[in-house]
Amino acid sequence: MSVAAAAAGRQVWRQLARNNTGTSAAIRRTISSLPKSHSQFRPTSLPAFTTTTTTTTSKAVPRLSQSQYRSYSSGGSSGDGTKVKFWPFVVVLAAGTGGWVLLINRQKNMPPNPKQTASSTKPTPAFSPSEVTVLFVLGGPGAGKGTQCANLVTDFSFHHLSAGDLLRAEQDRPGSQYGQLIQDCIKNGAIVPMEVTVALLENAMADAIKKSGSRKARFLIDGFPRKMDQAFQFEKVVCPAKLVLFFDCPEQVMEGRLLERGKTSGRADDNAESIRKRFRTFVETSMPVVEYYEKEGKVIKVDATPGPKEVYEDVKRKLVGKLGENF
Ligand SMILES: Nc1ncnc2c1ncn2[C@@H]1O[C@H](COP(=O)(O)OP(=O)(O)O)[C@@H](O)[C@H]1O
Ligand SMILES: O=c1ccn([C@@H]2O[C@H](COP(=O)(O)OP(=O)(O)O)[C@@H](O)[C@H]2O)c(=O)[nH]1
C-alpha cells in the first residue's frame, strides 16, 4: 500500500469521526474499533486496493575522509621489526565496517528521491477508458436516477451499477464487518467511507466484464460519486469517467416521490427524517462534485421534473448529441 493511499484512508476515517457529531453512537463505536491502516478495513470479499512499492536506488558510496582512516604510521612498534603485526589490520577493518554501517543507516533515513516516488507510486486504473466507458449518474435522492438508468440499459447496453444497491447488498451479506456501519450511514443519509464503496464498484465491474467475455464495456455508475474524495479515488484506481449525467430536480418534487416510493420500497431511508438528512448531504457534499465536473465540461444536465418518458427523451437526445450513436 502506498503511503498516499494509507494517508487517504486515515483521512477518511478522521473526517468521518469529525463529521460524526450528529450520527449515531454505533458509528462512533465502529470507527473507534476500526484499524488505522486502510488496507485492514477493506471488506474481505472485496478486491485489493492498488498497491505499489517505493524503491530507493542506492547512491554511489562517497569515500571516507582521511580522518576516518586509521593511519598505519600512528602506532608504535612492539618487539622486533621481523614480527608480523595484526592489530593495525584489525583497527582498519573495524573502522571500515563502522563507516559502512554509518553510511547505510544514513541512506535508510534519507527521504526517497521525489522523481522515483512520483512514478513508482502512481497507481494505474484497473480499467482503461479506451475499453471501458464510465458514466457517473448523479442527482438528488428521488430525482429518478435508477428509473432513467433502466431505460439506458435497454437502449445502449450499459451495465447498471447502483452504489446504493451494492452497499445495501454488502450490509445484508452475512459476516460483513461493514453491515452495521453501512446501515447507520444509510439511515442517517451519511456517506459510507469511500474505500468500501469504491472497492464494491470495482468488484462489480470486474464481475460484469468477466461475465460478458469482452474487455469492452459501458457502465452507468448510479448515485456515485457523492463526495469529492470518492471521485478522485475512483478515477485514480478504477477508471476515469467519460461523462456525468446529472438529474436536476427540486426538493419538493423529490420528497413527494420518495415518500411515495417509501410505501413499498422497504428502504430504511425513505422516510421524512432520513429524507431531510439525505437532502442536506446532497447539497453540502454531493453538489460540489457536480460543480467540479461541470467545470471540467463533463456534465450533461437534464431537468428531471417532468414525467419519466419526457425526461428520457431529453437524456437520450443529449447523450447521443454529446457522444454520437456509437460511443
Ligand atoms: N420523472 C419521474 N416522474 C415521476 N416519478 C418518477 C420519475 N422518475 C422516477 N420516478 C419515481 O420516483 C421514485 C424515485 O425514483 P428513482 O429512480 O428510484 O430515484 P433515485 O434513483 O434518483 O433515487 C420512484 O418511485 C420512481 O418510480
Ligand atoms: O456512493 C455512495 C452511494 C450511496 N451511499 C449511501 O446510500 C444511500 C442511498 O443511496 P441510493 O443511491 O441508493 O439512493 P438515493 O438517495 O439516490 O435515492 C445514501 O443516502 C448513502 O447513505 C453512500 O454512502 N455512498
From TrEMBL:
Enzyme class at the top of the EC tree: transferase
- What is the cofactor note? Binds 1 Mg(2+) ion per monomer.
Q: What is its EC number?
A: 2.7.4.14
Compositional bias, Polar residues, is annotated for 36-49, 107-123
GO BP terms: namely:
'de novo' pyrimidine nucleobase biosynthetic process; nucleoside monophosphate metabolic process; pyrimidine nucleotide biosynthetic process
Kindly list the places in or outside the cell where this protein is found, as annotated in its UniProt entry: Cytoplasm; Nucleus
From the UniProt entry, list the residue stretches annotated as the region Disordered.
Answer: 36-79, 107-126
Record: residues binding a ribonucleoside 5'-phosphate: R168, A190, I191, V192, G223, F224, P225, R226, Q230, R267, R278
> Which Gene Ontology terms cover its molecular function?
ATP binding; nucleobase-containing compound kinase activity; phosphotransferase activity, phosphate group as acceptor
> Is Nucleotide-binding a UniProt keyword of this protein?
yes
The alphabetized UniProt keywords are: ATP-binding, Cytoplasm, Kinase, Nucleotide-binding, Nucleus, Pyrimidine biosynthesis, Transferase
Query: Which SUPFAM superfamilies does the UniProt record give?
Result: P-loop containing nucleoside triphosphate hydrolases
Q: State the GO CC annotations.
A: cytoplasm; nucleus
Q: Which residues bind ATP?
A: G142, A143, G144, K145, G146, T147, R261, P306
User: How does this protein assemble?
Assistant: Monomer.
Q: What is known of its domains?
A: Consists of three domains, a large central CORE domain and two small peripheral domains, NMPbind and LID, which undergo movements during catalysis. The LID domain closes over the site of phosphoryl transfer upon ATP binding. Assembling and dissambling the active center during each catalytic cycle provides an effective means to prevent ATP hydrolysis.
- What is the name of this protein? Uridylate kinase
Native source species: Cercophora samala
